[in-house]
Amino acid sequence: MTTVTPRDEQDACAAVAEAASGRIPLAIAGGGTKVSIGRPAQTERTLSASGLSGVTLYEPAELVIGARAGTPLSEVERVLAGRGQQLTFEPLDYRPLLGSGGEPTIGGVAAANLSGPRRIQAGAARDSLIGVRFVNGRGELVKNGGRVMKNVTGLDLVKLMAGSWGTLGFLTEVTFKVLPKPERTRTLILRGLDEPGAAAAMAAALGSPYEVTAAAHLPAGLGGGAQTLIRLEGFAYSVDYRSGELRRLFRRYDLDLVDGEANLSLWRSVRDVAPFAADVSDEAVWRVSTAPTKGHVFTAQVARSVPCRWFYDWGGGLVWLACSPKEDAGAAVIRAALAETGGHATLIRAPAEVRAAVEVFQPLSEPLRRLTAGIKGSLDPVGIFSPGRMYAGI
Predict the structure, then answer these.
(1) Tally of domains within the chain
(2) Whole-structure pTM over 0.70, yes or no?
(3) Three-state DSSP state, 365
(4) Is the pLDDT of residue 40 over 90?
(5) What is the pLDDT of residues 290-314, one digit of tens each?
């Protein structure tokens, strides 16, 4: 497949206009780390943002950073770290899970609406994304948003582009709100809890006044005994006080405290779904969002019909579930369980033939499908951007 790599926005507009005139479907890529997510799209060319790199705006005092879409995420994080700041939403790195190479880009973070364990406090990428520049399906450059959070009139294209997976336009530049890095992070590990008990403990921690920034549960069998993880971040004196209060709250539990690199490594493992990494597992992997109090109800229902493994993030509201990649990779059972508990599921990793045969993203109701198709038609009238990647026929 031919890859087109624009050097600037003018090049990008010309490349898209040419593709639109010839009705040539385009795969959209940044660093290529997530190309296997979604339905296999029938495209003839790849339009890559890798040539659009560099930080274009950084105002530490205003807590704003802007960069071209192909800028490596590591470069953005390095620039921010130099001033003691960070992207608040802790974007996950899909490479371990997918076994992919390449380098994650800041445009890919926005296009996939990535987030990690801090999602329960800071929101996802879309909640910090305040400005975008992109090329629509007519080859026109579009700018929306700016340098402040409340800067939108009319249609909020910033939020629309977040999580669109390259199906609505070709991102050329993104702007994010950032925050200072915490002075200290510390994790409380509660050991040996069953899943209802872990759900109750995480709910108690998140409902406390102690500003928990992450809560996860790893059931027994994922590298050891059951562990319920509760993270605190902030100024050192504040973390010391809040961890002391939580220790008192959970004084009846078998409890450890983890600081330093061990703490950081623990949450990288949760963030990047390390228990199901491609080098240790060939299972299909689902990302399931549901109510935190329903996560263990959902997994119990699925496990009655499909052999699987799982763990929880976001206080139980995010379930990472691994099962056999054969047949429909458990899709029918998972969707049926969600019909009862509520929520939605995305098939993140599976063979191409499975992703072609099942709904990878949560199926749309008919009214929502018409709305989605209408938005796609407005921004990409010829349908050249990653056609069918999210939904067949769109």
Answers:
(1) 3
(2) yes
(3) coil
(4) yes
(5) 999 999 999 999 999 999 999 999 9
Q: Are residues 29 and 152 in the same domain?
A: yes
pLDDT value for 96: 96
CA–CA distance from 5 to each of 15, 71, 172, 219 (Å)?
9, 13, 12, 44
Q: What are the tokens at 171? A: 């991102």
d(Cα 293, Cα 104) in Å, to the nearest integer? 33
What integer pLDDT is reported at residue 1 of this predicted model?
77
Q: Of 217, 252, 271, which residue is a domain's last?
A: 271
160 and 242 part of one domain: no
Pairwise CA distance, residues 70 & 103, whole Å: 10
Domain limit, last residue, from 161, 180, 199:
180
The β-bridge partners of 29 are 48
| CATH number for position 350 | 3.30.70.260
The single residue listed with the structure tokens 């108690």 is: 204
Residue 175: its H or E element: strand 170-177
d(CA 53, CA 30): 10
